[in-house]
Structures are given as C-alpha cells and as structure tokens.
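Thread: quick sanity check before group meeting

JM: Hey all, I'm pulling together slides for Thursday and realized we never actually wrote out the predicted structure for the chain we discussed last week. Dropping the sequence here so it's in one place. If anyone has concerns about the input, flag it before I start.
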Amino acid sequence: MRLDADNLVQRVAARIQSRFAEEASGHDWHHIHRVWRLARKIAVAEGARLDVVELAALVHDIADWKFHGGDDAIGPREAERLLREEGAGSDLVEPVVEIVATISFKGAGVRQPMRTLEGQCVQDADRLDAIGAIGIARCFAYGGHAGRLMYDPEVPPVLHATADAYKAATGTSVNHFYEKLFLLKDRMNTATGRVLAEERHQFMASFVERFLEEWNVDDGLTP
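JM (edit): ok, ran it. Output follows.
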C-alpha cells in the first residue's frame, strides 16, 4: 500500500515541479519542495498520515487565490482535478482538498481552524517557510512581483479584520511582517511546529529591527 502511495506522490511531485519551475514570486517549486519536506518531518514527529500530508503539501499552492483574482475555490478545484487525473481515490482526494481549502492565512482578525492533524502539519510547514531567512526573502520577492513598495513610514500596518480586507490590501513589504508574518509563530498548530518557529521568528524580528535602524539613518547633521 505504501509503495503505491509513494508512486502517486512522486508522480504528483513531478507534475508540480514542471508547473512551478519558473515561478518568480516566491511561490515556486523550491517553496513547495521545502514545505513538502517540512510537512513530512512534522508529520513523522506528530504521528500524522503521511500520504495525505505529502500530497497536500505538494498541491497546497496549485492555484493560489493571490494569482487568480481572489478566487478561493480554484485551488481546491485544481488540486482535486490533478489528483483524480493521477488516479487518487476519494480517501486521499477528500482530505487533501479540505486542507488546500483551509490552509491560507486570511487576515489577523480571521481564525479558520485546521480540522485534521494532517492539515495542521501542512499548514505549519507552509507557515514556517513564510518566516525566518527564507520568509524574509519570499516577502520581498512577492512584494516586488506585486509592485508593492518596500517600505513607506507614512503607511502604517493594518491588522485586517476580514478576509476581504486582507485580500484587498496593498501595503508595503515591511508592513506585511506586522500584518501576517510576526503573527505566525503563535498560530502554529503542532508542538513540533512551535519549536521550529521560535528561532525563525527571532531571526526575522532581528532583521526588521536592523532594517528600520538602517532606514532611519543618522547623518549626524540633524539638530
């Protein structure tokens, strides 16, 4: 049974790699591959079902709403289509599609609990890749891709109360740390995820502190 699951996982991985190899916003194959590996690590530690975790990690960004006009339904739909094409049964398709439908952060004021342990492992892995050194790089990569300013001290961060407000936001890349990334450490689902998030969060906080220090350069001439 596991041999068949491994074969399915590898086929899905090959299709996702081909589809996202040239993506340049920080949601590329390498992001997906890191999430896959992190999710597998967390799943082993937490005792989750590996085939569901691996497949959900591989297809979690198959059609992100950010690149499809805010459409939340397209990701789950595309995930189901690909898995059905590869011969996955409903015992795999249904839990994976549920994870894809629930995984995204939707605003500081929005709580959407992940129901299954498998989903919690994948969501933690995805959020871990959004913080730390890689998370910093991805934040600015996406900001540039979306045409956002790197920073503007006249534009304050906003803790969005609704998913619609979060989707409509056009704030700066530095604001995104306050609006989402600094919140993720305390939104990890699993004990393993919480341990892995701690150091990444601290590194990210130190970076933003240093960024603002350098931005507000003291030229020694101001009275």
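AS: nice. Residues 105 and 111 are 9 Å apart (CA to CA). The first helix runs from residue 2 to 20.
JM: adding both to the slides.
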